[in-house]
Specification:
Number of helices: 9
Strand content: 15-25%
Number of strands: 13
Order of helices and strands: HHEEEHEHEHEHEEEEEHHEEH
Strand order of the largest sheet: 6-5-4-10-11
CATH topology of the largest domain: Glutaredoxin
Helix content: 40-55%
Length: 306
């Protein structure tokens, strides 16, 4: 089962909490999805711009525009949820917090999070309650401006969801929303970098996804080496996996550098030995000349003595 299928199953489970008492629930087979999930899912719009000119209200009751929250000098994790969700939103946000808790990057400094409610009937009071709970779970001191929880109008919610490919649907019988478990990574200039469609987010994957979305603005040199020379994102596995091609390419590059360094060292050693040999020969010639001169002087002295 792929991640997309698993996310839809989670959405189905969430929806069925509200319709379990109806006959349709009893007729759902293992490999079938209810009609209520039509249109629910993720359409990945990688490198597409997030609609940034949409207006919302943050958890403090202030009017905000997405551009002011997303465009800047750090990547953003964008989540679409709703605050009275009976199950799936909590699983998604808790899973994200669990992963980020082990990431040695600072929320509000190295990256930010923006959560938007897909329920137009929810307001700042409910947003504030949810924000406090998740920040407490994260267990890190963050600036007040970090991780805003937003509410908005139906039109702007739908425009944002369509722009990032987040398909959801309201079920009138249960009063709940059917949607998938997904978080979206956005670059500092407001373009979609990556999706993670799950409720479990390993810390290594979260860190690499943030570094990847940052376009080299956050993370260490080791992160960059791992990301561009060892790991690549596998959408089917929903994780960063070791790339044989990247590892071989990196190994080949290192080998070429080592060979070049070795050749330069040998050339320098050869030049040093060659210079030393010439010096020795010069000394030998000088010694020979001195010996000949001494012999000549000795002969002259002998002749003079006679």
């Amino acid at each position: 089962m792929t991640l997309s299928q698993r996310s839809i199953r989670c959405a189905a489970a969430s929806l069925l909490l509200g319709v379990m008492s109806t006959p349709v629930a009893a007729q759902i087979l293992a490999d079938e999805l209810p009609a209520e999930l039509d249109g629910v899912g993720i359409v990945q719009r990688l490198d597409a711009p997030v609609p940034l000119d949409l207006a919302f209200v943050d958890h403090t009751g202030q009017d905000v525009v997405l551009r002011d929250l997303i465009v800047g000098d750090r990547p953003v994790i964008l989540t679409l949820n709703y605050y009275n969700c009976p199950m799936l939103c909590s699983l998604t946000l808790n899973g994200m917090v669990d992963g980020l808790r082990e990431v040695d990057l600072d929320l509000g400094v190295d990256y930010n999070i923006v959560t938007v409610s897909i329920n137009p009937n929810e307001g700042p009071k409910l947003a504030t309650q949810n924000r406090k709970g998740y920040l407490a779970s994260l267990g890190k001191d963050v600036p007040e401006s970090a991780w805003p929880f937003l509410t908005g109008t139906q039109d702007n919610i739908e425009a944002l969801a369509k722009g990032v490919g987040f398909g959801y649907r309201f079920d009138e019988r249960s009063g709940d929303y059917a949607h998938t478990a997904s978080i979206t990574f956005v670059t500092p200039d407001g373009r979609i970098s990556k999706y993670m469609n799950d409720v479990v987010f390993p810390p290594r994957d979260m860190r690499l996804a943030i570094v990847d979305a940052s376009q080299g603005r956050v993370g260490s040199l080791i992160d960059t080496l791992l990301l561009f020379n060892c790991f690549q994102w596998d959408p089917e596995a929903g994780s960063y996996v070791a790339s044989a091609w990247k590892i071989m390419r990196f190994g080949a590059a290192v080998t070429v550098v080592l060979i070049a360094a070795g050749v330069l060292i040998l050339i320098r050693m050869g030049r040093g030995n060659s210079g030393g040999g010439q010096g020795t020969n010069t000394m030998r010639i000088a010694d020979s000349t001195n010996t000949d001169n001494a012999a000549s002087n000795e002969a002259a002295l002998q002749i003079g003595g006679l």
